[in-house]
Every structure is written in structure tokens, then in C-alpha cells.
Target: ABC transmembrane type-1 domain-containing protein
Amino acid sequence: MENKEKVRGIIKTKKEIKQYQLAILKQMLTLATSGFGLVAALAWNEFIRTVVNDYIRTKISIGSGIISLAIYAVIVT
Model:
């Protein structure tokens, strides 16, 4: 009897370990995906800033920094 209980306990423990491993893997994939999303967002941010600074600011008169910032904010949102 005692051996059967030990075996059941071991099987239960192995199942729990497998569940924890899957949970950790899922969490790591979520974190990695979030990290890639952040990197992509930062790249787009830099691209939009460059476009606004190089093309829009040069077309609008000098001293229109607030306008170019407003255009940037509209594009980002």
C-alpha cells in the first residue's frame, strides 16, 4: 500500500513539474514577444521623429516646433 501511495505522489509531482515548466515557458514567450514589440515601437518612434524633423520641419516655417510636435503626436496616436 505504501509503495502505491509513493508512486502516486511521484506521478503527481512529475505532473506538477510539467505544469510549472509549461507555465514558465508560456511566461518566457510572453515576455520575449513583449520585448520584441517594444523594440519595434521604439524603431517606429525613431522613424517617425526623423520623418517629422527632416521633411515636415523643413517645409514649415522656422519656429514652428509646436506644429511639428503636434504632427508627430497625431501620427503616433
Observations:
- The chain has one domain: 2-76.
- Residues 2-59 form the longest helix (58 residues).
- DSSP finds two helices and no strands in the chain.
